[in-house]
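Interim report, section 4.2 (structural modelling).
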Amino acid sequence: MTANPPGVLLDRVLVRALQEGLPRVARPYHAVAERLGVAPEGVLARVRTLLASGAIRRIGVVPNHYRLGWAANGMSVWDVDDDEVDVLGDAVGALACVSHCYRRPRRLPQWRYNLFAMVHGHDRTEVETKLAQIAAVLGCAARAHDVLYSTRILKKTGLRFGG
Amino acid sequence: MDEVDRRIVDTLQGGFPVCERPFAAAAAELAISEDDLIARIDRLLADGTLTRFGPLFDAEKMGGAFTLAAMQVPEPDFDRIAAQVNAFPEVAHNYARDHPLNMWFVIGTETPEAIDEVIGRIERASGLPVLAFPKEREFFVELKLPVRT
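Predicted structure of the assembly:
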C-alpha cells in the first residue's frame, strides 16, 4: 500500500466536512475552510475541480419529492434481452419521464429484471401512463415488467463516507 | 410554500455558485436578499420540503462505491429491521416498496471492497439475506423535479 497523494487526502477531508451539507451562512466555503484550518481559496479551488471532474454531481437543494406533489414514485423494472439492453437503456433514459435508468444484474430465481427506470408522477395513474411510454420504446424486447411503488421513505440522508 | 420558495426549489437543484458570497449571488438571480435566501433554505429544511442542501457527490469518482440492495422483510418485523438497517451510516437512502422484496436501500462506502463487508454486517444484524443490485451501466438522464401543486 502506498500513501494517498495529498490531493486525495484533502478531497476526503472536504467530503467529510461537506456531506452534512453546506453551512447556511453568508460565506459558507470560508466557514468550511476555517473548520478545516485551511485557506478558503483552497476549498473554493477544490470544490470547482471536483465539480468539473464530476466527483461533485451538483450543488444545490435536494427536495423531498413527496412534498413537491410528486406523490407516486415507481421503480419500474424490465426483463430485457441482454443483447439489446444497452441500446434500449439509452432510449429509455432519454424519455423525459424517466429520472434514473440503470442496467443491473438479475438475481434468479427471485429477480428476473435487468433494466431499472425510475418514474415519478402526481399519482399512480400518471406513472402508469409513463410506463406505457417505456413499454412502447422497449417493444417485444421486454419479456416481463413490474413496478415497485415506494410506500414510505425510511431514510434519506445522502451518501455518507465513514470515519 | 410561497412563489419565492417554489422558485428556490425549481432553480437551485443545481448550479449553486462556488464563490465567496454564493447566497448573495444566487439571491440576486432570484431578486431577493441574501439573508432572505438563507432564512428560506433553513425553513424549507426544517419543515421537510428539502432533505439536504449542499454538494451531491459521485461516490465512485471519489474512489468509493455504492450499490442498490433489497431485502424481503416479514411485515411484523419491518420497523425493527428498518431501524437496524438505517443505523448503518453506509446506508444513504432506504425506501419501503410494495413488493415481496419490500425494503430497498443504497449502500455507499469509501472502497469497493467494503460493500460486501457492509452487506455481511447487515445480514448478521437482521438475520435476513440481502440481495445486491450494483449498477452495471448508468444510462444518461436529466434529474430535476419541478414543484407540483
